[in-house]
Amino acid sequence: MAETLEFNDIYQEVKGSMNDGRLRLSRQGIIFKNSKTGKVDNIQAGELTEGIWRRVALGHGLKLLTKNGHVYKYDGFRESEFEKLSDFFKTHYRLELMEKDLCVKGWNWGTVKFGGQLLSFDIGDQPVFEIPLSNVSQCTTGKNEVTLEFHQNDDAEVSLMEVRFYVPPTQEDGVDPVEAFAQNVLSKADVIQATGDAICIFRELQCLTPRGRYDIRIYPTFLHLHGKTFDYKIPYTTVLRLFLLPHKDQRQMFFVISLDPPIKQGQTRYHFLILLFSKDEDISLTLNMNEEEVEKRFEGRLTKNMSGSLYEMVSRVMKALVNRKITVPGNFQGHSGAQCITCSYKASSGLLYPLERGFIYVHKPPVHIRFDEISFVNFARGTTTTRSFDFEIETKQGTQYTFSSIEREEYGKLFDFVNAKKLNIKNRGLKEGMNPSYDEYADSDEDQHDAYLERMKEEGKIREENANDSSDDSGEETDESFNPGEEEEDVAEEFDSNASASSSSNEGDSDRDEKKRKQLKKAKMAKDRKSRKKPVEVKKGKDPNAPKRPMSAYMLWLNASREKIKSDHPGISITDLSKKAGEIWKGMSKEKKEEWDRKAEDARREYEKAMKEYEGGRGESSKRDKSKKKKKVKVKVEKKSTPSRGSSSKSSSRQLSESFKSKEFVSSDESSSGENKSKKKRRRSEDSEEEELASTPPSSEDSASGSDE
Question: Is 3.30.70.100 the CATH classification of the domain at 111-187?
């Protein structure tokens, strides 16, 4: 026989809501852990008095009763698991797991039985329904009638708010059956009534959630928050956890009370009660009980007269009454020495506290995330600056929390903490032993290498280069004026033998040469820029000689029938025509469509045949084109040098022949207006001839004449 049994996806019925979780049965007892809140219910084996197996809405359920009257219900079992559970109960708990079905007759009269925390409405021996009396918020009586009101369930879409029981009068003297019914309900109901005096009162405490100043009255079973506008009564049974957290400034303390179910104000739900205290504030407290009662009730955890810091007194009293441990920050210490990290969640700034078993963020909105519900964490780059990073947490339910604007110096400490707690880190890398990609980012020293900073610098350099390129393209030539070593052969220095005798020798030619040089420089720089840029893929255009794709049967029919449709419907628009054609085609018989299908099939065959011929011819032509290109390139390389010598000799001879003319002679000639124009035309024609000689390979005669010159 197995020592333990474990069941996943089991639902516990608590106050009308079904809480998902895991159930574990062991020799010592039964443990249920709520997946949503992490709350653990532990039932000792010696406390169990009865176990009932029955069919419910979610398959089969288990109902357990304890010696102190508590009832626990767990649903979601399969029918086949009954034998396994029955044997386990017999072996380890010495209990017979009884099968008892609910009555489904639909009658509305029967008998009411009060057993422990349950009100059971039975017909015969079978229960019809059961009401946990802890769900009852109010019980009122009338003539032969009792009305039960219930707490609203926030998790359920529809909540049962009221049930009325008709109690027939009896002949017994001295006993009112209606009052007896009501007293049985009230003795077990969760009805908050401020009877008697408070144990102690804390006045004008600063509360962050809900915001305001509140007087806190401590009663034996509940906590009463009394403010100027609102009052809240919080039963101690709804308190889930207590946290005592030091503020980053080391002068204040947060006291956080986690609630389930939350307190409500209109449509707002407060899952956390957050109090803020100053460390310097002291108080002397006297409990409204005698010393014997204090000793009997609290067993030395509290004394009648106490004094100390205000936050210590509040936390000590709450711990004794709620009977839960107070969670404080563990070994984590941030870069500044504080036990928390400043960050932002959603739109508000707050503090994130790494705890021994989870994270808590205060204060707006408060968030508590347990380690066992975390799927993975992620260290992400800050969106606005490299001086900060984001810390992301994703739970197993798929909820994501992003804590942003965390200082870069906190990275190392936070990463070490997450690593020590063995949480899954999304961007760690493939191997467990490898250093994470953000290790270098964690260093707080400015001299250390920062991967993100280096990347930002590279992006800045690229942006600067792009800006320079755009300024070059816009026509500014200041950056192109000097390129040593590139144009030494083209530029004639004044001490060179090729230089003109005087600066006024031929200004028109020098201007044109200058323009040509600049154009060459621009072309060269454009080539360099193109080589730097990534190659852009260009879509190949369609070959006009390629055969056209065949039309479908519908398109062939439409082309043939378009004119007929137009004549039948004069003035019809193009869109209406296509709609009408679609309707006609839809209603056409199968035999008529087959005729057009055959035509479409013939057209498809012709297309395939034409494509084969086209592809075969294209392959041969591409081979011929490649061989031609190779030949052309060879010719250009061989003949490039000959025309350049001829053209350079011509230009030098022209410069020498015209160098004796002075600037004054050209400008002072009155009849030079017409002659100058004709000279310019002649020069242009000569230049064009030179360009043609340079660009086209010369014939054998031209090369011979060039050598003669």
Answer: no
